[in-house]
Amino acid sequence: MLTVVGLTSCRDKFAELNQKPDAVTTAEPSFLATRAQTLFETNDYLFWFYNQAYYFNWSQMGNSGVFSEGTYGMDASVVHRQTSYITMLTYRNDINQYIEAYDHPEFKAYAAMCGVLAIYGAIYAIDINGDIQYTEASMYRYGGPLTPKYDKVEDLYDLFVKELDEYITTFQDETQVVVSKQDIIYGGKMDKWAKLANSLKLKIAVRLYANNSTKATQIAQAVVSSGAGYIDSLDDAFIFHKADAATGGDLAYQTSNGVSMIGGSENVIDFMVASRDPRVRFFYTKNGFNSKIIQEFITEKKADKLPPFVTENINVDAEGNFVSYKLGEPWCRYHGRPVVWEMSPEYEAMKGIYFDYTDRYQLTVKKTEGGEEKTYNKSYSLFSSVTEEMIRGRCSYTVPTIPGGPVIQDNAQMPWWGMYLGAGETNLYLAELAQLGAVSGSAQAYYERGVELSVREWDYVAGKNKIPYYGTTYNYDPLEESIELKEGEITTMLATDEVKWDGSMEKIYLQQLMNFTMLPNELYVTARRSGYPKVGSTLLPYVKFSKFELAGVPRRFEFSEPAPTDIMHDIRMDDLKAQGLTPGKNQSGMGYSTTTVLNTERLWQDKNAPQWGTPVK
Fold this sequence. Notes:
By secondary structure, the protein is mainly alpha-helical.
């Protein structure tokens, strides 16, 4: 970590060094701010490897491969507690110390940048932890306590709004000096930083609304009326990549580690396909059944082995050969997993479809022109999973081809681009708040603008990440279609029954959920605070379980008791008690005697929210 050196209190120590004091390099604010930006991350490898599976399962917006209802009600011991905001606070504090020591108030914008990033991360940390250490965190080197206190959620939301307003004032100060190339997020454009800071207040407002609608309304109205503006275009969106391949090494790719890819929920993907939502193509992978593969199954007299969702969607001639798709490319290639496998009345038959690892999806082994054996088997997924190239840059993709066919691979390593807050998100929040009467303006206009900008932003990110089939079909299957956004698709989507504006809160929340597919923390929070997807919905239903109540589905992770030797033990235990949260019985997780405790003992911001699948009417 870069730290500020050369402060007055440290000067005497230079006498012990075999060099002059002025030979020691001082970490200046511009470099500190750049380093903070390269370290900023809320959805890193560990998050995608572990936490996201719970978020998708609990909200039923995805399926991690659970096969029974009981899996949804198990204790959840979290690995990733979202503490990256501490790093951002450290850099903010370091820059402030530099400014004070060297009397350079013109560098406050750098501290403000780090402060904005700290608040972004702290909001996520609160979503998981409730109370967090913030006001006294990362201050020990400057005389702060070694055991920082836990700040209350409600107090932190107030503080964040106050700090964001101060940062906006700093960004609007024309005396500030910023080196544009040192700002890898916005290139030194202070107006865009001000919009980001103002937009973060909308995240706070929607989280606060269930517990204090008056305060949430005040925050939202201040956002809309602020001269700073808010993120309202693709150009303003918080989308960036940290480095190029030539200069950034591993930093350019987000992570070199493979992540645990979630499968799309059958209900969600069916909804997106029915609404002709182009984002299904950006978020999820095509399955392995292109027209050539399907025909090969028919040729080998194994058409009966094809999954029903494939055979139901093709037209064949009198001899049974493939003619065309009923739904058409690329829509026909997206299919999700059932929410819970065992709930289907055709469960026994489904087991044969989903769990036959022998020859059901094995085609005859043939040799390529180069003499190598080439097979087709279940490794080409039956289902659509979250697109890994939208999470990390070091990925490869192999096009499904018939045995004996060519080996076509996409091994390009692309610098990873991530979206953290876009205009789709802000406008969909404003649609929600306008429909609740919290802000002025047309809820319909916000909603339709939010949907359009969400699609365009995710298309932009998918293009930057060069995900499979974006702008190419790999010249193998003549019926294959590329997946980039096409002219007129957004208009078509907005006219479908699933998306067309009708004034319902359900459609607003469902579009927020769709937008957050690649931001699982927001996905989970939105489902938790809104009660959508809804049990019994004709649009996108939440599946009600037969073996346990919805109150058995966790709404938070487990909190284990710290070790007795932990210097934070008493402070942590007092805070858990104050929050009304019972710690688990052991430090390895799975320590509760009943899983309902993770539903009934809620974090402060969740206390007045509806149960899963049961939104307030």
